[in-house]
Amino acid sequence: MAIAVLGWFPWAARWLATASSFALFGLGGLVLTLLVFPLLRLMTRNPLTRRRWTRLIINRLFHRFIRYMRVSGALTYSIDGAERLGRPGQMVIANHPSLLDVVFVIAQIRDSNCIVKSALWDNPFTRGPVSSAGYISNDSSLDMLEEAIDVLKDGQTLIVFPEGTRTTPGVAPSFHRGAAAIALRGAQVITPLIISVEPGGLQKNQPWYRIPARRMHFHLRVGTDIDPAVYRDAAPGPRAARMLNDFLQQYFSKEMGLHDATRT
């Protein structure tokens, strides 16, 4: 009996750490929406200055949030190559295995834009931050594509999760071709970011409270840069986008140790 209780205690401690982390995240989003960003709008009317300060605040808070999750015992993480993120006109393309991927990636880049779920604009905890930061809604419209292209041409770093939703565990990623089209028309450089979580947790259709038996470890690894000009010069627009998208799917499938269905 005593052994069973001792074996259960670490799991319960991690569950409480996870619960406190998400409660803190929700509270922080509400405070930013109701207090911090309205105050920021009063302090400066310059939209570019306000956007830069908003992104810096989000970056620092996300950085502290993942550190809190590590210190509290909810998870561990390691990052390889973060110094190569945040370059002008850089499009960072990442896979999406867990709920915290956006938080981890934005925490690595001080001033980045990001294509995020349109549902965040309807959430009272996140509406203020994503709007004030100038993030782009993934509503799949032509306006969204043009806005993302303009962001890259403006010299911003753009973070994109081409799957559009969290990956089904054990299944090779399936990327929307729109990300490749954006990269070909706007990016100076494409940088893959491979994210892995072991053991799997916070996955698709998995509530936050269903934590794995062992502590999750997040590993972020920056891959080899891809020059979009190689594909722009190789074929006309739609065909080049298809070629780049196929390459990215094969690249991520190989890095993740999965079979790419597009090769069958």
From TrEMBL:
Q: Where is the Phospholipid/glycerol acyltransferase domain?
A: 90-198
Pfam families annotated for this entry?
Acyltransferase (PF01553)
* CDD domains cross-referenced by the UniProt entry: LPLAT_AGPAT-like
Give, as in the UniProt entry, the pathway in which the protein acts: Lipid metabolism
Q: Which GO terms describe its molecular function?
A: 1-acylglycerol-3-phosphate O-acyltransferase activity
Query: Does the record carry Acyltransferase as a key word?
Result: yes
The processes (GO biological process) annotated in the record are:
phosphatidic acid biosynthetic process
**Which keywords belong to this entry?**
Acyltransferase, Membrane, Transferase, Transmembrane, Transmembrane helix
Can you tell me where the transmembrane regions are? 15-42
Keyword Nucleus on this protein? no
- InterPro entries per the record? Plipid/glycerol_acylTrfase
Protein name as it appears in the record? 1-acyl-sn-glycerol-3-phosphate acyltransferase
